[in-house]
Amino acid sequence: MSIKAVIFDLDGTLLDTLGDLTGAVNAALRRRGYPLLTEEDVRQRLGNGVRRLIARSLPEGADDGLIDACLADFQAHYDAHLVERTHPYAGIPTVIEGMTRRGVRMAVLSNKYHAATCRLVAHYFPGQMAVTLGERPGVPRKPDPTSTREILRLLDAAPEEVLYVGDSDVDMQTARSAGVTAVGALWGFRSRESLVAAGAEHLVEAPEELITLLDRLQLDEACRAFEARGFTCTFCATAAQAADYLTTRCAGKSVAFGGSVTLDALGVYDALRDKADVHWHWKGDAGITSGDVYLTSANAVSAMGEIVNIDGTCNRVAGSLYGFDACYVVCGVNKLTPDLTSAMRRARTIAAPLNARRLGKRTPCAVDGKCHDCRSPERICRAMAVLMAPPARMRHYEIVLIGEELGY
Ligand code: SF4
Question: What's this model's pTM, rounded to 2 decimal places?
Answer without folding.
Answer: 0.76
